[in-house]
Amino acid sequence: MNFLENIFERLKEASQRPVVQEARAGRLVGATGHELLAQVAAARTYLRQAGLRRGDRCALLAQNSIRWVAADLALMAEGMIVVPLYARQAPAELAVMVRDSQARLVVCGEGSLVDALRGQMADAPRCAVFDEVFSGAGRQERPASTADGDAVTMIYTSGTSGEAKGVVLTAGNLNHMLWCTGARLDLLMGQRKETEQVFHYLPMCFAGSWILMLTCLSRNAVLTLSTDLPRLADEIRLAEPHYFLNVPTLLERVRAGVEEAMEKRGGAGAGMFRGAKQAWARRQEGKAGALDALRLGVAKAVVFPAIRRRFGRNIEALICGSAPLAVETQLFFQMIGIPVLQVYGLTETTAICTMDDPRRIEPGRVGPAIPGIEMRVGDNEEILVRGPNVFAGYWKRSEETATALRDGWFHTGDQGEVDETGNWRIIGRLKNLIILNSGHNIAPEPIEESLARQIAGAQQVVLVGNGRSFLAALVTGAVKTRDVAAALAALNEKLPHYRKIRVYQVVREAFTVENGLLTANGKLKRDAIAAKYWEEIEAMYGKAVSA
Question: Right CATH number for 443-546 from 3.40.50.300, 1.10.3720.10, 3.50.50.60, 3.30.300.30?
Fold first, then answer.
């Protein structure tokens, strides 16, 4: 039984209980297994009537919802290749992906998305909104037969040039990955028979997010989808999850919020919290004494339970991926009694290469390789991966596929190290790709070049922000601040939210070969620039936070 057949069988078994639900205005609106299968059947009927065939690409452009899940399952069940797209992506970029994928149909959550896409594509393929796709009915059927080598999805990811590449994942990739994620969650949840409660707020067009969704459908779980990010805290408490997937941004924001709130509150509670933090720090250094144990014990009984209630009464663990999590943040959650399990991987590895073992978590590391795959360190400490999780190739990009897949190994472009127990740590990236702590990947060169052209007197523009929550820029040359501000405002209007540049710093000295900030052939030495202008970069982010 392949992954999709297993999901359909699970939904039949859960015909009378919710399997996926939406948090809406303080209440949960759900679909049982039977209701979700009915929506899948309706969508499959629409797809057939629209003339789509096995192997056709179909783009899915919508916010997370029950209907998104049903459309995704329907497309895979018909043997089509799903091309999930980010609803908040700039329309011009979406048009590039739709055109590149040769999608025959674009299924959109709402009419505004259709209008935005057609505004960029005179040759746009047929578009349909959810109301059309789910308007009819259909007969529930088994999924179309699928071989391991059959393509299931094509997820676009940006390379260092900024040009989107379609990562083709197969049924074999999914068969292996969902077995691995299920086994690791079994270690976390144990042998309990109760239905697992899982909360989800990340867009399901991202590989890791999609894998979690499919994993939940493969298990005795109910997945609650966020529909209103400004009300995220309320939705989490409403869902009362056992676990959920995160990016570092949220966890670091929660930690900062808790620490700030405790300081403002003052009194005995703040004192106990402060003492517990100090005791915890000494424990990590191996210097804790009897008084430290007492302070931690009191905080665990009196202070920490109230903090944990932010995540509901059921919370067992938090899962974090897409970017490195600060060790201090992971230790903070460990201190209050919520372990954070880290995951490392790329879209090309079906989202996952390593996962923390819940029985042995080491802050700062991302766990051992998942079962059945091999990882090793290559030249320049680059992480190399091979196994059934590695993608089939980039869509219509044979040369780039050959570069990434060499001698049977996928070259990740990430640098890492592994200890004697097989536990990995991610050191950095060989490529220039900036990874925000929200998990968004950003190629800096196209933005830098565009901005430099628009600023009179600018010699270079360098983006920074790896591991941060937003982008900032260093601008060199005899420029006027008003010109920089105007150029930024004009550029930001054309960019999606995560590519906007929030702050900048003018640097009068240009980067040259002579001052060690350019290579001999004129390329930026980004690490050297970041080191030299460390204070200016820290000041930019400090100014933005305090503004």
Answer: 3.30.300.30
